């Protein structure tokens, strides 16, 4: 209260009234965006809301560093500038290197004379070649997308932009010991147990929501593709793993959502499905001979309950 703040300085009073990080995470819609210093803002809730907006550009991370910007690159050998490909193909770089080698053999007196009376037009190159290089074969430079900021030593990191989820390169297959095309990846069994990756709900994974390669077989033997999870009626939960032509929209309504809504729908509580399940149970009790027209609803974690998989169809439940 106000009595606890009496006699405190401005700094102590500000620290006393500052909201904790744990409490701030409970007050915002996206707690994963909260950082350790966000509670020091004058309006932490507004700050986190702005960080969660689409196309918002974050503040460069070097604002909290003690050292000056780019001081960590001191002592690192700078790579020489490399001409673009369309200019290098004209051969101008080789001409300049040849003239530089000739100038290196000159004496200091000859170099001084060339400075006073320089000879122009030493690089003899066809201007049509230069015209074609800039107006026909010129390519756009590599630009960073919106919000992709530079930070120190970024150029020394491995470029991961060409990686695609679900696609194994030959080097990765060799490292994992997948010598044959029909060998399953080592994480397939865990995906069949816990569900597909939440960040990639539409990713086609053979053995989970897509058919396995020709010549492969299901099972837990060496080289087997595990056992795909199915519901009580024997239909696959995550996708058309058996190749029967079932679409994702028939298996789970969350696949038909917009891409921006899928990330929240797969993690949201399934309250509507629970009410649908209750109504379907009441309908099933009134009409025991009628089968449901579509597949069962999948829980939000992607796994069917253990009791629904173990119950015998038509058996009386206690």
What topology emerges from the helices and strands here?
Blueprint: H1 2-5, H2 10-16, H3 21-27, H4 44-51, H5 85-88, H6 92-104, H7 108-116, H8 127-135, H9 170-176, H10 188-194, H11 248-251, H12 259-265, H13 271-286, H14 306-310
In short:
The protein has 318 residues and is mainly α. Helix content is 34%, strand content 0%.
Structural description of this entry:
By secondary structure, this protein is mostly helical. 34% of the residues lie in helices and 0% in strands. It contains 14 helices and no strands. It starts with a helix and ends in an 8-residue tail after the last helix.
Q: Give me the Rg, rounded.
A: 32 Å
Can you summarize the main beta sheet?
Answer: none
Q: Could you tell me the mean pLDDT? A: 78
Q: Estimate the global geometry from the Cα principal axes.
A: flat
Which percent range describes the beta-strand content?
under 5%
Low-pLDDT residue intervals, each spanning 5 or more residues: 266-275, 284-318
Structural category: mainly alpha
Q: Give the count of helical stretches.
A: 14
Helix content: 25-40%
Question: In sequence order, what are the helices and strands, one letter per element?
Answer: HHHHHHHHHHHHHH
The count of DSSP E runs of length 2 or more, i.e. the number of strands, is: 0
Cα separation of the termini: 56 Å
